[in-house]
Design the sequence.
């Protein structure tokens, strides 16, 4: 009864709790939160100092009593308490944005395909203690497919590849369910680490992961570019410890990240090999759709298409597909029923 009363006033939310970014969607306003999954905490008092964009600015620059924590690792919760606080902050902020009086929303939230029951329960519990009245779990590739407007309920197979910060998920979807899939714990963050390692090995220079990400965004690519690109980067000399600047070009960055890109492409091929032939025929016809921030790596679609001999396209606004999919499901209870991932407990 109480729930019913609250339900009438509360605003429901779709959430993409990502390793790198957290997004929140409300039916009225669309995406109201899109911020990095980072929390800054005063370790002396346990007080939260900043969340999201403000906390990200503190990464790597905090004095010893302040810690900037990324509570998600490889798509799953690694620090429960901090995740719960971060979600609460974002949910409250989403409600403040849409002037809701009683913020006890139903929440549809994405989870990776291969998580354990314990990891799944952690997402449910954190979302509920952050203020949700009811929690619906949805597999991220399914949400990404719905957000990309793919006909997931049809008896035609589609392949979706979501490359985020911590996970790459490859899934074949047909008739509202995932038929075959593969979740890799390597994605955008791994490319950044590859670049850190390369610069260390080739130039004897130490750079941070944020600088590495900047390099990837500015001049990173999966295949040769029409016009070469280069950029000046700064770091610390490994031998004398002093600041130093060097110039790095696109082919060096390609060399740094090439192995990881090849692993992702190999897994796509493996997934195709274990997919029933009728469905593979559909995928050949319809192509592969890329989502997640990793989809934006220059030339990745072309490299994948060449390796698989299947057309590949990047979804519109790939960074927001999962949360937009969750948002579509808020307004489509019939489809939600079809694609819901079983909950670990009764809601
Ligand atoms: N233009 C770009 N080129 C290459 N990589 C990019 C680009 N834009 C964003 N990325 C990468 O995309 C990743 C973030 O993507 P996304 O927000 O989809 O991840 P996430 O959902 O937080 O993570 P996960 O799904 O693994 O939990 C980061 O590694 C980021 O560097
Ligand atoms: Mg994601």
Sequence:
């Amino acid at each position: 009864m109480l729930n019913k009363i609250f339900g009438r006033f509360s605003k429901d939310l779709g959430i993409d709790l990502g390793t790198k970014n957290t997004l929140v969607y409300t039916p009225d306003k669309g995406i109201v939160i899109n911020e990095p999954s980072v929390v800054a905490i005063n370790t002396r008092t346990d007080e939260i100092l900043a969340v999201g964009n403000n906390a990200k600015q503190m990464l790597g620059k905090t004095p010893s009593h302040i810690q900037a924590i990324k509570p998600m690792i490889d798509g799953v919760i690694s620090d429960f308490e901090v995740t719960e606080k971060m979600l609460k902050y974002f949910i409250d902020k989403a409600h403040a944005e849409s002037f809701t009086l009683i913020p006890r929303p139903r929440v549809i939230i994405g989870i990776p395909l291969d998580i354990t029951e314990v990891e799944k329960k952690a997402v449910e519990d954190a979302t509920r203690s952050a203020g949700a009245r009811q929690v619906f779990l949805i597999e991220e590739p399914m949400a990404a497919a719905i957000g990309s407007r793919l006909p997931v309920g049809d008896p035609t197979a589609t392949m979706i590849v979501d490359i985020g910060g911590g996970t790459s998920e490859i899934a074949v979807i047909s008739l509202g369910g995932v038929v075959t899939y593969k979740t890799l714990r390597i994605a955008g963050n791994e490319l950044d680490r590859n670049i850190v390692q390369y610069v260390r090995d080739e130039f004897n220079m130490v750079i941070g992961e944020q600088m590495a990400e900047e390099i990837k965004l500015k001049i990173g690519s999966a295949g040769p570019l029409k016009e070469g690109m280069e950029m000046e980067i700064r770091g610390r000399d490994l031998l004398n410890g002093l600041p130093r600047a060097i110039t790095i070009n696109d082919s060096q960055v390609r060399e740094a990240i090439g192995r990881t890109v090849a692993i992702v492409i190999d897994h796509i091929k493996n997934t195709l090999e274990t997919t029933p032939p009728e469905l593979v025929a559909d995928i050949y016809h319809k192509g592969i759709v890329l989502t997640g921030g990793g989809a934006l790596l220059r030339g990745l679609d072309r490299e994948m298409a060449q390796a698989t001999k299947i057309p590949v396209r990047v979804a519109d606004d790939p960074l927001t597909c999962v949360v937009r999919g969750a948002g579509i499901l808020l307004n489509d209870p019939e489809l939600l029923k079809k694609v819901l991932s079983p909950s670990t407990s009764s809601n």
Q: What stands out?
A: Residues 250-273 form the longest helix (24 residues). Residues 1-9 have pLDDT under 50 and may be disordered. The first strand starts at residue 13 and ends at 17. The domain at 2-38+73-143+321-339 is CATH 3.30.420.40 (Nucleotidyltransferase; domain 5).
